[in-house]
Amino acid sequence: MEVKKLKMSMTNVLKSDLKKILLDCGIQPSFQRLAIFEYLYQHDVHPTVDMIYRSLSRDIPTLSKTTVYNTLNLFIKKGIVTGLTIEENEMRYDYNVKPHLHLKCTKCKKIWDIKCDASFSNLNLIEGHRILEKQVYLKGICRSCLKKQKK
Amino acid sequence: MEVKKLKMSMTNVLKSDLKKILLDCGIQPSFQRLAIFEYLYQHDVHPTVDMIYRSLSRDIPTLSKTTVYNTLNLFIKKGIVTGLTIEENEMRYDYNVKPHLHLKCTKCKKIWDIKCDASFSNLNLIEGHRILEKQVYLKGICRSCLKKQKK
DNA sequence: TTCAAATTTGAATTGAATCCAAATTAATGT
DNA sequence: ACATTAATTTGGATTCAATTCAAATTTGAA
Q: Looking at the partner chain, which of B127, B130, B137 has a beta carbon nearest the beta carbon of A137?
């Protein structure tokens, strides 16, 4: 009971915080947009459009997939969400303010976050080109699959 | 006349070299495969499947797009070609043995090669994950577009 | 030459992403 | 409150890269 109450109030505080972030970016925080933003905030598994759509559809039965696409493209344009193309077939979306890298496991296909320890130079000018955005994509075998291999 | 002759013999030398590379990788160097490999070797502009197909079709009218897809996937599996997903909509292919980064210009949409000066750590184990492949995707404004801006 | 395996081909299919016009909702002015 | 305009959402249709698959062709071995 106590825990549930606390959790609910936390959720509410969070929602208003997220609303503020959207407003600060000049994005009207509509019901759908806030729901999608909240989903991204709570699910750091680099979800696909379909995952977001299927999950939110249960609560918002009228939700359209086009709205999910529209909203995510808007978020990307405003810079609060990143689109990952490490998956060859479909885009994945990521809300993460801290700089980090992505590793795709070739075994389990999961995309892991790697805390970036500034291992990559933070120049903003390389060979005369102005660098605005950096993404490091790693491919390999994740530690959980490595453990399974050993057995 | 002299130049043409020289160029032809160079092309021949090159072709047999490329054939050897394929054989060394356990790839039967069929006419189509060799043509696709040669195209990648000569065109470092990160071509799409369609670009490769349209160009080679003029010399090989019976060429099928599926063959291009099959061949490129085979090359990737054998590790002599890299597939770039920096473009959000379509795959681009790259034959380049030397380590390098890719920069996509947000203005002219071109993908530039950046000579990698080992600016990224070459660990093969990060946070317990085994790293097999690294790709650094940069986005920004290329030097040629920056020059145009200044005028 | 003959037969089996490898390779190529093109039509059909899949599915992520976009387009677009209509419907709905929110914002503004009177 | 009401009307009018703008912003947002919706779903069906469309696009197009990529894959599937069975048939045709080519290659290699016996």
A: B137
Count of CB atoms situated within 10 Å of the CB of A149: 9
**CATH class of the domain whose range is B2-93:** mainly alpha
**Fold designation for B98-150:** Dna Ligase; domain 1 (3.30.1490)
Contacts of residue A149, defined as CB under 8 A and 6 or more positions apart, other chains included, come to A141
Could you read off the pLDDT of B25-69 as tens digits, one per residue?
999 999 999 999 999 999 988 999 999 999 999 999 999 999 999
- Give nucleotides in strand C with any atom < 7 A to a protein C-beta: 6-11, 15-20, 26-27
Among A126, A134, A138, beta carbon nearest to B133: A138
Closest CA–CA distance from residue A93 to any residue of chain B (Å):
12
What pTM did the predictor assign?
A: 0.85
User: What is the C-alpha to C-alpha distance for residues B19 and B61, in angstroms, rounded to an integer?
Assistant: 22
Domain regions of chain A by residue span: 2-93, 98-150
